[in-house]
UniProtKB/TrEMBL annotation:
This is Mediator of RNA polymerase II transcription subunit 33B. GO terms for cellular component: mediator complex. GO terms for biological process: regulation of phenylpropanoid metabolic process. It comes from Dichanthelium oligosanthes. The lineage of its organism: Eukaryota, Viridiplantae, Streptophyta, Embryophyta, Tracheophyta. InterPro entries: MED33A/B. It comes from the Eukaryota.
Length: 1228
């Protein structure tokens, strides 16, 4: 029955309802499409008040009609499709909208039938996501069908199929078949199973399908685990597969973790992204050289380890940094784990071998290097293996049986690396000074292998509580010592603490991580929130605390605490001790069992000096202002910053939850700080007051003191006692001394110690800056002889050793002001360096010989004396008065580096003069002092620093004619350390690692390093033979000429140069300089015009190599600064990556005009993104998806479709649909 058209006044919804009803009727009556179209057009015009092209409502009506008619044929279905065709031809409905509606409806229908959204937990409203779900579902069903046919479903955890595998009414058939019929059915079933298996193989070989599947692998890990379990079960147990000609290869590739987004192994994708990079294993042992070999690509490890031995204290955890460094290099070097572990072992052994004959001085020695080898390196590897174990546990819970098979075998990789290590005999020869300890360890090992208990005879060595140093190295004994130190008698806890802080801590490498924590715990015995309630407890423990503080004051101990990440916690414990004991009179004392008497001043001074060594207390604030965030990591340590780090460790749930298995073995918990409450400077009012005075002293000159104040009285009292020997006719020392005059009475000594004021240490320290200022002023005006000044300061330091720190800070500040007249070191008023100055000059020239830097003359105008700024002259004269014995060692460990820093900040040749003076005093320190003086050559000359950096690149690449080793690589860069005697040149890498912390503005270093890297690339390009020509030359009789290298070898050199440059940037300026490099310097470099190939000498090769060099530089720098884990080491990573990829996307879009060569830009973008998606995929997930889509689009315009897909695939689940659409829209 015909339907009348709706009245003209009908609304839009009314005519659409009419159109729907009319369409149904027209289908039933088989009305011609033109008639249907004419009636609908008229109704639309009447309903909308005019012509309605591309009606959205009509597209909705047609979509419903097509889907309700079904796809099975028949008149209604055919009519519906013809009506749709007529509507599109008449422009009544939008083709795109109709197609989209049909797609959505079809997806919804399929989703409803297969329950895809319910099964996978992700909505399938996005077409790309739907495709991924559908492909995985179809393959899953096919696999379940075969498993069901072969009776293997019972072996799955669910013991059933995820989707129905057979019609539901099959089991209801009650008839019987003849034997022949049954056999026919079985044959058909087997054929069907084989056909299904062939279909599965065909799908797994399809390039589009495998790419779609790896999107599921990346973003649907729990479901992927269950799917690959079934696939693994099918591949290993299916009789059909085993008895057929079907290949197992596509099954295995999909199961194994090495399969990537292209259905290829990682080896293949590396060839695809980086086809010219050579990758060889660490195979041939070359002894200590290991220069141009594969070890060169592991240079960042050697550089970091050597930098840790600089003597500077860092508040970082070397174990975490080293494990992150190894993981990053293993990824970017595409190496096996046994190669990565072997590289770490070799670097640690080289670290020890570089000091086979250690020089004497206030710097870390061989024990610190052995700690890095035998404790820190071992713990770093243990962290990597523990992390892999935790990942394996997670994947097992998710159903991954084979997914992390490679990671689960890290222990075997470690054992293999240790076996290969035996081939490097020259590196395994122990230094002479540790041979006895090595023999003892070998004896214990042989006893253990023979079944002899190494505990035999131990108790005989421990007579009651008379502890000996013959510990056999068991963790249980360390715990016993700790328990005695905590709960034993006064004498027993002192004895136990003495053993615990001796060789037990220094050389007990197998349990050192526990010992250092126990020592810190002994220093902070109770909750530090209420110090008034704990004072009596700390005072009672004074003798034990003093033993610990004296024991760990040696120069090798502080770096060990630093390596283990305990500097913040140690500093907090020392602050509490200083706060309490600094308020006590020196009359508070204890008598030890040996008869020695120690006072509160002694305990305070030991704690205070050790505390100050943990930060650069003597560096003026101006340095921090200049360097800012660009300062090297750990160089800006202050009390507030140390407490901030300590509090962050306490409040961080992750750090509290992260405990090594070894720590759980301890009965005494040591993994957490002694207090779970935050601590601030306000908790230490006396320390805070001193610190404010210290900062004020550094920032400006001292202001006068009013008469009659306690501080003024203390200053006068101290001045009188310090300079009692001086005889200047009763002349006053300074304006502060008031009526005090210098008398003829004898100076302070053992007999008149009672004359010194019995004041708490804090009150004395408050007066010390004014005392030193008055004394120095008197000396400059001739009222005090230099010798008397030095003697008086020494008497003050003897009375309160902690005052030495304030003396150091005062002199450091005054040197920077430039208001004091220079002191002539002529041998009459001040000591003369003339006896050794010429020798120092010659040795400095030999030390820096490999760098090509000219050393300024020390001796000018025939004078061998020279001058020093008055504060420096006074300080060096003070340090010379100390005897170089064990009693003075802890003070010289503070004064030595301070003197070096102070002299280095003064004009040339101040440090050389200091070295000559100290060499006369202590011959055995001459090597250390001369080397320190050689470093100052670079402190005052930026051009010399650049030349030193140039030498580092040339030596590493084997392009230096003056290198200490001709083979390049690590051996040329770092050499064999510093040889005693001062007659051998020092490798440029060693020199740079010892001078960069004194460079005032590290930001300029990144520019210099970037320029030197590109100059190195130009040198490499000059010798590079293109691949096609290289292949031809290999087939000729003579091959390539001397000095020529293949493209693959050239790319390896470029990679090594970039890794060196990135390491230098990271070590010099930390994360801030890395951020500046990536966010500012590299974009500026691309925007400017760079003519690297003048005259076309390299035929454009320099641009391609240069692009890859910059890509490696950026990725290496980011990995070193931020790590490759999902949780970044620095919060800067997300911001920097977003900014840099936004720049790349804008340039690819044409929104930014570049000045660099197009081939260099192409090589950089493809190389950088290729390295990121392969080595640091978690970085991609921190970037906005819109930016990634723009990058992907730009890459496709270059023909980099594969990289475009991987970039989106790495972006996480939200990009899965986009990545799938890109896969479907590309030709593979």
């Amino acid at each position: 029955m015909a339907m009348s058209a709706p009245p003209p006044s009908s609304s839009s919804s009314a005519w659409l309802e009419w159109a729907a009803e009319y369409t149904k009727a027209a289908q039933a009556e088989s009305r011609p499409p033109p008639e249907w179209a004419a009636r609908v057009a008229a109704a639309a015009a009447a309903g909308e008040g005019g012509d309605v092209p591309w009606s959205a409502g009509l597209a909705e009506v047609l979509a419903r009609a097509l889907l309700s008619a079904g796809g099975g044929g028949g008149a209604p279905a055919a009519a519906a499709w013809k009506y749709a065709e007529a509507a599109l031809a008449a422009r009544l409905a939008s083709p795109a909208l109709l197609l989209a509606l049909l797609s959505t409806r079809i997806m919804n229908l399929i989703d409803g039938n297969l329950s895809l959204s319910k099964m996978f937990g992700i909505s399938t409203c996005e077409p790309g996501v739907f495709v991924v779900h559908f492909v995985l579902c179809i393959l899953w069903q096919l696999i379940d069908v075969v498993l069901d046919d072969e009776g293997l479903l019972e072996l799955t955890p669910e013991k059933k199929a995820q989707w129905p595998t057979r019609p539901g009414d099959v089991s209801t058939f009650d008839g019987t078949f003849t034997e022949q019929r049954t056999e026919k059915i079985e044959q058909l079933q087997k054929m069907n199973t084989v056909t299904t298996m062939e279909l599965i193989e065909h799908l797994l070989r399809d390039k589009v399908i495998t790419r779609i599947l790896t999107l599921a692998r990346e973003n649907m890990q729990s479901h992927w685990g269950a799917f690959t379990n079934r696939l693994h079960l099918l591949a290993t147990n299916s009789s059909t597969l085993q008895n057929s000609a079907i290949s197992l290869e596509p099954f295995q590739q999909l199961i194994l973790v090495d399969c990537n987004v292209y259905g290829e192994t990682k080896h293949n994708v590396r060839k695809r992204f980086h086809p010219i990079v050579a990758s060889n294993p660490l195979s041939s042992p070359n002894g200590r050289c290991l220069g141009a070999s594969y070890s060169a690509v592991w240079i960042p490890i050697d550089m970091y380890l050597e930098d840790c031995l600089d003597g500077s204290i860092a508040a970082t955890n070397s174990i975490e940094i080293l494990s992150g460094l190894v993981k990053a290099l293993q990824a970017v070097n595409r190496s096996t784990w046994h190669d990565a572990f072997l590289a770490l072992w070799l670097a640690s052994l080289r670290l020890v071998q570089r000091e086979r004959e250690p020089i004497e001085g206030p710097v870390p020695h061989l024990d610190t290097r052995l700690c890095m080898l035998l404790s820190i390196t071992t713990l770093a590897i243990a962290d990597i293996i523990d992390e892999a174990d935790s990942l394996c546990n997670v994947t097992e819970l998710n159903g991954h049986i084979k997914e992390n098979k490679g990671i689960g075998k890290l222990r075997n990789e470690l054992m293999l690396s240790l076996q290969i290590l035996g081939d490097y005999e020259s590196l395994l020869v122990p230094p002479p000074c540790v041979i006895p300890a090595a023999n003892q360890a070998a004896t214990k090992a042989s006893m253990f292998i023979s079944g002899i208990s190494v505990n035999d005879g131990y108790m005989e060595n421990v007579n009651g509580m008379n502890y000996s140093h013959k510990l056999d190295g068991s963790l249980a004994e360390v715990e016993k010592l700790f328990e005695v130190a905590v709960s034993g008698s006064d004498d027993d806890n002192v004895s136990a603490a003495t053993v615990l802080c001796g060789a037990t801590l220094l050389r007990g490498w197998n349990f050192q991580e526990h010992t250092v924590r126990l020592v810190v715990k002994l220093l902070s015995p109770s909750d530090p929130i209420n110090y008034s309630g704990r004072e009596s407890q700390l005072i009672k423990l004074g003798p034990m605390l003093n033993v610990i503080l004296s024991g760990i004051s040696a120069v090798d101990y502080a770096p060990i605490f630093s390596f283990h990440g305990l500097i913040p916690e140690l500093a907090a414990a020392l602050m509490a001790i200083c706060e309490v004991f600094g308020c006590l009179s020196p009359s508070v004392s204890w008598t030890l069992r040996t008869g020695e008497e120690i006072s509160a001043h002694t305990v305070f001074s030991n704690a205070f000096i050790l505390l100050l060594r943990l930060w650069k207390f003597n560096h003026p604030p101006l340095e921090y202002c200049i360097m800012g965030d660009g300062a090297p990591v750990g160089s800006q340590l202050t009390p507030e910053y140390l407490l901030l780090l300590r509090n962050s460790q306490v409040l961080s749930s992750s750090s509290l939850a992260k405990q090594r298995n070894g720590q759980r073995q301890l009965q005494v918990p040591t993994s957490q700080p002694s207090s779970e409450h935050p601590i601030f400077m306000d908790s230490f009012p006396k320390l805070k007051l001193w610190y404010r005075q210290h900062q004020a002293c550094l920032a400006s000159t001292l202001s006068g003191l009013a008469h009659g104040t306690p501080v003024r009285n203390n200053v006068d009292s101290l001045l009188n006692l310090m300079f009692r020997k001086a005889n200047k006719g009763g002349t006053s020392i300074g304006s502060l001394s008031g009526s005090s005059s210098i008398s003829n009475s004898s100076g302070p000594g053992a007999d008149d110690s009672h004359l010194w004021p019995q004041l708490p240490a804090w009150e004395i320290l408050e007066a010390v800056p004014f005392v030193v200022d008055a004394a120095l002023t008197a000396c400059s005006h001739g009222r005090l002889f230099p010798r008397e000044l030095a003697t008086g300061l020494k008497d003050l330091a003897d009375f309160l050793p902690a005052s030495l720190a304030t003396i150091v800070s005062y002199f450091s500040a005054e040197v920077t002001r430039g208001v004091w007249k220079p002191a002539s070191m002529n041998g009459s008023d001040w000591p003369s360096p003339s006896a050794n100055l010429s020798m120092v000059e010659e040795h400095i020239k030999k030390i820096v010989a490999t760098t090509g830097v000219d050393v300024p003359r020390l001796v000018t105008g025939g004078s061998l004396s020279g001058t020093l700024p008055l504060p420096l002259a006074a300080f060096v004269s003070l340090t010379i008065t100390y005897k170089l014995d064990k009693a003075s060692e802890r003070f010289l460990n503070l004064a030595g580096p301070a003197l070096e820093n102070l002299a280095a900040s003064c004009p040339w040749p101040s440090m050389a003069i200091v070295a000559a003076l100290w060499t006369q005093k202590v011959k055995r320190w001459s090597d250390f002092l001369v080397f320190s003086a050689s470093r100052t050559v670079f402190h005052h000359n930026n051009d010399a620093v650049v030349q030193l950096l140039r030498s580092c690149f040339a030596a590493t690449l084997g392009m230096s004619s003056t290198s200490v080793c001709s083979c390049g690589g690590v051996a040329s860069l770092l050499g064999h350390g510093y040889c005693p005697g001062g007659f051998s040149p020092v490798a440029p890498g060693i020199l740079y690692l010892r001078i960069f912390r004194c460079i005032k503005d590290c930001s300029i270093l990144a520019d210099d390093i970037l320029s030197l890297l590109m100059l190195s690339v130009k040198d490499i390009a000059k010798t590079t033979v293109p691949r096609q020509r290289s292949d031809k030359l290999k087939k000729t009789k003579y091959g390539m000429r001397h000095g020529q290298v293949s493209l693959s070898a050239a790319m390896t050199q470029v990679k090594v140069a970039a890794s060196l440059g990135a390491t230098l940037v990271w070590l010099s300026g930390g994360t801030a300089l890395v951020q500046s490099l990536i966010q500012e310097m590299l974009p500026s470099w691309f925007l400017s015009v760079q003519n690297l190939d003048q005259g076309g000498a390299s035929r454009g090769m320099v641009y391609k190599l240069g692009g890859h060099a910059l890509a490696y530089l950026a990725v290496y720098s980011g990995m070193l600064a931020w790590g490759i884990d999902p949780t970044p080491v620095s919060r800067r990573r997300k911001r920097v990556m977003r900014s840099h990829l936004q720049f790349l996307a804008s340039a690819l879009d044409g929104k930014i005009s570049l000045g660099c060569d197009p081939s260099l830009w192409h090589a950089y973008v493809a190389g950088f993104l290729g390295l990121v998606v392969e080595c640091t995929p978690c970085w991609v997930q921190e970037v906005d998806l819109k930016v990634l889509k723009r990058l992907s689009s730009g890459l496709r315009q270059w023909g980099e479709d594969e990289l475009a897909v991987v970039l989106l695939r790495r972006a996480g689940p939200e990009a899965m649909g986009t990545a799938a659409e890109l896969i479907l829209g590309s030709e593979w």
